[in-house]
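Lab notebook, bench 4. Continuing the backlog of folding jobs that were queued last week. Each job is logged with the same field layout so the records can be merged later without manual cleanup. Today's entry covers gamma-glutamylcyclotransferase, a 246-residue chain. Filled in by technician R.K.

JOB TYPE: sequence-to-structure
TARGET: gamma-glutamylcyclotransferase
LENGTH: 246
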Amino acid sequence: MTSTSKKTRNPDEILYFAYASNMWSRRIHICNPTAKFFDIGELEGYYIDFFDYFESWRGASAALQKGPGRIAHGVVWTVPKEDIHNLDRQESDYEGVDVTVKLSSGEDAVCRTYVYGRTKAGKRDLPSLFYKAVIVAGAVEHQLPEAYVQELVKQPDNGNVQGVSVPLDVEELRSSVKGYLSLIERSRSLLPGLLSTMSGDSGAAGPRYVVRRGASGPVVTYRPFENAEHGLEPEFRLLGLADMKG
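JOB STATUS: finished
OUTPUT FIELD FOLLOWS
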C-alpha cells in the first residue's frame, strides 16, 4: 500500500471487494461487465480458505475466514447499484455483507463482499489447479504484494485443469500465471499408465521410478529425464498410491 492519492467514486456505484476468482478482470467481466477497477485493498483480521466441492470449478471454492493478525488482500471494483443483482446471482451460494477495507491510500472504505458457510458449516477441501490459477492471475494482474501472491501459489490444489465450466480461455490463463504456475493436469487417472511403464531405473536416457514404503502405503518417486512423455513436471515427484485410487 504505497499510494497517497484518495479515490473518488460515483454515488450511484458501490465498492465491491473481490478476494478470489473475481480479482481477475477476465473472470469478473463474464458476469459483471459493468464492473470497473477502483483500487487494491486489505481486509484485516481475515484470510481465505477453501470449502466444499463445486462442479463448475472442479474443486473447492474460496471463503473468508476470521484470523487475528491475518490480512486478506484483494481487488476493489466499482459496480453500478442497478447491477448488484449480477453479483448476487454469481455468488448465489454466498451471502453479501459489508466490510471495511483499507485502500492503497490508507483510507478505509466500506465494501460489499461475499461470505460462505453462515447457514451451514462447509467442509474444507482443495481447490482445482485451474481455480487457483485464476486467483493467482488476478493477484498478479493487480500487483498484490509478492509475498501474498506466493502464499496463493503455495496453496495445495487437487490438480484439476480440465472440465471447468466457467468460460475462460486456458491458454490466456496459462500466459497470465507464467512464472508462477504451470497448468498441467495432475489427474489420478495418470497413475495406471505410469505404473505400467515402471521398470526401476531405466538409465540416463529415460525416466527413473523408485518405489519405497510410506506411512500410508507405497510411494513412487518419479525423476523426470523425459518428463513430457507423462505430462509431469519436476516438482511433482511424490505420488502416494494409497491416495490415488479412483
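OBSERVATION: Helices lie at 25-31, 84-90, 129-141, 146-153, 170-176, 190-196.
SIGNED: R.K.
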